TrEMBL record:
Residues 42-368 form the PORR domain. One of its GO terms (biological process) is Group II intron splicing. The lineage of its organism: Eukaryota, Viridiplantae, Streptophyta, Embryophyta, Tracheophyta. One of its GO terms (cellular component) is mitochondrion. InterPro entries: PORR_domain (IPR021099), PORR_fam (IPR045040). This is Protein ROOT PRIMORDIUM DEFECTIVE 1.
Amino acid sequence: MIFNFKKSTVKAVKLSYKYKVQSLPFLNFQRYSYVNVYMKWKKDSYFDSIEHIHESIQLKPIIALKNCIVRDPNGCIPISTVSKRGLELDVPMKVARFLRQYPSIFEEFTGPKYNLPWFRLTPEAAEIDKDEKRVYEECRVELKARLKKMILMTRENVLPLKIIQGMQWYLGLPNDFLQYPEQNLDESFKFVEMEDGLKGLTLDSGEKIYSAMEKNAMKRGLYTGGPMEAIEFPLYPSKGLRLRTKIENWLHEFQKLPYISPYDDIPSFDRNSDIVEKRLVGVLHELLSLFVEHSAERKKLFCLKKYFGLPQKVHKAFERHPHMFYLSFRNKTCTVILKEAYRSNSAIEKHPLLRVRKKYIKLMKESEVILRNRRVKNRFYNCNAELDLDSNNLNERGHDMTSCSLEQVM
């Protein structure tokens, strides 16, 4: 079942799933499945309107610039400090222009040297920054646990440092997390040399890790922790999204397949089998459950394919399971959203940093009001200036006409 998003149409695709498990004769596997799909991508306004997901792209460079200001001993920086670091900080335009777009966060003033523009945090932004630091301090163990889980999902329990740095925003780790290993990491983490000269972070953990799916199934009494038990994924159909009978039948059988934990080695099944597909979906579900917004840009997940053992066309899994994942095309990018995190109050644990990011986004929105009021104020001043100018011109003309009339009388 494949959905190709091109002008909201989908070509018919035929898929066959064949696999045979000799070692588990007691399992009733579906031997053959044939699905012929004609479906359009269905827009869901609910997921397209989740503010903290879609504003996250804009918030990331704001936080990066905020951190540059906070790290300065004086709590303020000249524009020259960051003007040439736009690409590094993911700023989509000239840095000075970007800073001026958010007057509720960044306060501009003339510096002591060379009359350069300087920037500091507004009192409101400085207060949220303190709250953010408190969360990092109080939730240090939880944030470290999320990084552990991500590393333990890889094939060899190791990830390159550059990959971890690229995923820090999604995991909710501070930018300088890896710069202070003694403070942020424990003895179970080790730095290693990887192929291609890359430096990586590996983890030696003998403890059993349970995924979010397994924990929730245990709470409901539907899972005992044994191997090859079936766990059904929670499904959340979008309004107006209808599946054909063949697809519904396939999905029903798919749900009955054994659930293989993302933290366990995958058995030697056919890579094109449904059971491997179910493990892939389980990996993606667990990965998104670790993230702050329980979502991520789809293209950012592609860098994980090699280390997580994901198939080349991993993006098809999101399209084949629209009841679990939603693909949003706002902000000229494709964002994958885990539906369960927004349709169930207790199923997916909320990230401790989410509350802080929502505060930043609320402050971002106040910038729009400030800039709008400035524009209105400037128009008012310009109108008054024009009226004063016209009034002065009329007075001058009246004075000239009076002078002319006096001369004629004389």
